[in-house]
Specification:
The protein is mostly helical. It is built from 22 helices and two strands.
Length: about 500
C-alpha cells in the first residue's frame, strides 16, 4: 500500500503517546535491574505527563485511524489518553508513601502501572474488537499483579486469586461474544460490523447472543450487578492507592470502549439490548448503595459505592451518543474523587484494621486538614453542590431523562439520597464521634499533601466550572477539521 511522507509524519505524531509510554515502561524495567529505585516514581509521573502532552499537541481531527483501522487516534482519542494518564499521575501522589509505610518497597509496580495504562489506552481507543480484547487483557494482567502485590499477606493473595479466576472467566464471555459477532458479520472492525446491518437483521437472535456475551464481559470489568461479587474482597486486599486506580482508570477505559462499541452499532435501535443495560444500571444503583450503608470498613464501603457509581454511568450510557460525553465526564470526575478518597484512606492505614470506621472517631479534632479533605471528597461523591460530583451526576441524569429513561433516572436520584447517608455518616464519625484519641494517625508529606491539594482544587473548580472539561470533550468529539483517511 502506497503512502506519502506526510502520512508517515501524521501517523508517527498520532501514535507518539503510546510509543513514548512503552519506552518509559522499558526504561523503568531497566532502572529496576540497575537498582536505580529512588527515581522510579518521578520518572513514572513524568512519563505519564509527557504522554498526555504528546496526545493533545497535534491538531484535532474528526477521525483518524492507525494500524489498518484498528486504533482510533483522532476524534475523542487524545482526551481519552489525557484522562487515563492523569489517573496514573493522581495515583502516584499516594503510592510511594503508602508502600514505604508498609515496609514493602516493591518497585515492579511502576513499570506495571505504565503498561496497565498502555492497555487501557488501546482498549479505550480501539476501532477493532481484537484490539479491544488485547487492550483489556494487557491491563488486566497488571491489575491481577496489583491485587496480589503483597505476596505474604493473606488478604492480598485472596484478592489476586479471586480477581484472576473471575477475570479469566469474564474474558471468556467477552471473547465468545466477539467470535459470534465475527461469525455473523465476517468482521471484527467496528465500522464494518456496523455496516453489516442487513446480516444482523437476518440473524437477530445470534446478534443478541453475541452482544449479550460481550456486554457480560464488560459488566464484570466495571463491577456492575450481578457481576460485582469480586469487588469488595479485591479492593480490600489490594494496596489502597492501587485499589483507587483499579476502581477508576480501568473502569474509565472499559466504559469508553463499551460506549464506543455500542454507539457505533447504533445499539439504541435494539430495544432488548437497551433494556438489559437499564436493568443492570438500576440494580447496580440499588444494590450498591443499600449494601454500602451496612459497611463498617472504609475500603469495603468504597467498593460497594463503586458498584452504585457504575450504575449511574450505565444510566448515562443507556442514553446512547447523547449520553457518551456525560459518561466520560462522570468517569473523569469520579477518578478525581475516588483516587482522593482511597489515597486518604491509604495515608491513615498502617494495617487493614485501620480502615475500620470506628478507629476514625474524633479524627476531625486530631487531624483537621486531613478530615476536611476527606469530607470534601465524600461530599462530592454524594453529589452535593457545588462540588464536581454533583455536576457529573446531573449530566448523566439529564442525558437519561432526555433519552426517555425517566423511571431509571428517578431511581438514580432516590438512591443518591441513600448514598448521601453513608458518605455523611463517616463525616459525622470524624467530627462528632466520641473519642478524643483516634486510633489512626494520618499525616501528610510533601507529595501526598500536594496530591490532596491538587485533587481538592480540581473537585471545586470543575464543580463551579464544569465547562472546562465539557467543552473540550464536545470539541474533540466533533473535531475541528475535515476527516483524514485511515493510514496503513
Amino acid at each position: 500500500m502506497s503512502f506519502n511522507p506526510a502520512d508517515i509524519v501524521n501517523f508517527s505524531v498520532m501514535i507518539a503517546p503510546l510509543l513514548f509510554l512503552l519506552a518509559v515502561g522499558l526504561m523503568l524495567m531497566l532502572m529496576d535491574v540497575l537498582k536505580a529505585h529512588s527515581s522510579m516514581p518521578l520518572i513514572t509521573g513524568l512519563g505519564l505527563a509527557g504522554a498526555a502532552i504528546l496526545a493533545i499537541l497535534p491538531e484535532k481531527v474528526t477521525s483518524m485511524q492507525a494500524f489498518y483501522g484498528m486504533i482510533e487516534v483522532g476524534n475523542i482519542a487524545p482526551l481519552n489518553i489525557v484522562f487515563l494518564c492523569l489517573s496514573g499521575v493522581f495515583t502516584l501522589f499516594f503510592l510511594p508513601d503508602y508502600l514505604s509505610r508498609q515496609n514493602k518497597p516493591i518497585y515492579d509496580v511502576y513499570p506495571l502501572l505504565i503498561f496497565a495504562i498502555v492497555g487501557m489506552i488501546m482498549m479505550a481507543n480501539a476501532s477493532d474488537l481484537l484490539i479491544t480484547f488485547i487492550g483489556l487483557e494487557t491491563f488486566s494482567i497488571a491489575l491481577y499483579v496489583f491485587a496480589a502485590l503483597f505476596k505474604r499477606d493473606e488478604n492480598s493473595n485472596e484478592a489476586g486469586l479471586k480477581y484472576f479466576l473471575l477475570g479469566a472467566f469474564a474474558s471468556a464471555f467477552l471473547l465468545l461474544g466477539i467470535s459470534l459477532l465475527y461469525g455473523l458479520t465476517g468482521h471484527t472492525n467496528l465500522n464494518d460490523i456496523a455496516a453489516s446491518s442487513s446480516k444482523i437483521a437476518e440473524n437477530l437472535p445470534l446478534f443478541y447472543t453475541g452482544m449479550g456475551l460481550f456486554v457480560i464481559g464488560f459488566l464484570f470489568k466495571v463491577s456492575a450487578f450481578p457481576f460485582h461479587n469480586w469487588t469488595p474482597d479485591v479492593y480490600t486486599g489490594t494496596p489502597t492507592p492501587l485499589a483507587g486506580f483499579m476502581a477508576t482508570g480501568s473502569k474509565m477505559a472499559a466504559f469508553i470502549a463499551m460506549g464506543t462499541v455500542l454507539i457505533k452499532m447504533n445499539f439504541t435501535t435494539y430495544e432488548k439490548l437497551v433494556n438489559v443495560l437499564v436493568v443492570a444500571a438500576v440494580l447496580s444503583m440499588i444494590y450498591g448503595n443499600i449494601v454500602a450503608v451496612r459497611q463498617k470498613n472504609l475500603k469495603r464501603m468504597l467498593a460497594y459505592s463503586s458498584i452504585a457509581h457504575t450504575g449511574y454511568v450505565l444510566l448515562g450510557l443507556c442514553a446512547g451518543k447523547a449520553g457518551f460525553i456525560a459518561v466520560i465526564f462522570y468517569m473523569f470526575i469520579y477518578t478525581i474523587m475516588n483516587i482522593g478518597a482511597f489515597g486518604l484512606v491509604g495515608i491513615a492505614e498502617r494495617t487493614l484494621a485501620d480502615t475500620d470506621m470506628d478507629k476514625w472517631k474524633g479524627l476531625g479534632a486530631k487531624a483537621p486538614y486531613f478530615a476536611a479533605a476527606m469530607a470534601l471528597f465524600l461530599f462530592s461523591m454524594a453529589g452535593i453542590p457545588p462540588f464536581a460530583g454533583f455536576m457529573s451526576k446531573y449530566q448523566v441524569f439529564i442525558a437519561a431523562i432526555h433519552s426517555g429513561q425517566i423511571i431509571a433516572a428517578i431511581i438514580g436520584i432516590l438512591t443518591s439520597v441513600i448514598a448521601a447517608y453513608y458518605y455523611i455518616y463517616l463525616i459525622v464519625i470524624m467530627y462528632f464521634g466520641k473519642n478524643e484519641s483516634p486510633e489512626v494517625s494520618p499525616g501528610f508529606n510533601l507529595t501526598t499533601g500536594l496530591g490532596v491539594g491538587v485533587l481538592a482544587v480540581l473537585i471545586i473548580l470543575f464543580g463551579v466550572l464544569p465547562s472546562l472539561v465539557l467543552e473540550p470533550l464536545t470539541q474533540f468529539m466533533s473535531g475541528t477539521i475535515s476527516a483524514v483517511a485511515s493510514i496503513f
